Sequence to fold (202 residues):
Amino acid sequence: SVTQSFTVNVILNTDCPQILDFQTAVEVGGVAMLTNCPTLVITNTVNISNDVTIVGVSNVILAGNSLTRLFHVLPGGNLTLSNLTLLSGLSSSGGAIYIEKGGTVTASDCTFQGNTASGVNGLSGTAGDASDPNYGKSGGPALWGWPGLGGAICNRGTLEVDGCQFLTNSAIGGSGGSGGNGADGSYQGGNGGPGGNGNVGY
Fold:
């Protein structure tokens, strides 16, 4: 028998009667006590520029559905998270949270699960110069892929974590670009350009 492995992506829908409490807290600052909010899908990254506290009283999931990062903490922003599951965020740096210099995050009793930092792929090289019909020029080199930084959290500021779990988060480097095609020539065609190197995840 042959065993095959495959990945199933589960798309969650928002089920949160308290969504306005959440929106108010992240927009103007303050505390959101989520007592009736099983699932809140983040469709656009939430920027934190002031003091924001989000508390999940029972089994609260904040999900990015592998489409977007959940939180971006700006300089001067202070984000406190408690008893939450931060699920399936996606970005090139900090799948769930990116903390800029001067930003602060405190997370307690949270679960970071299935978040991904996926580096940007490198650009392809330019095609060779075909202005000479006899001798085609070589294609240009491609650029390297960019690294993926921080599957769950990319921290350039201040981070304090207490009693949290980190499960199946990943960081993946971007692929190198393709080398440019060589130009055609009646006597001699150009060589293809070298491909770019892939990068790593941190």
In short: The helical segments are 19-28. Residues 1-10, 192-202 have pLDDT under 50 and may be disordered.
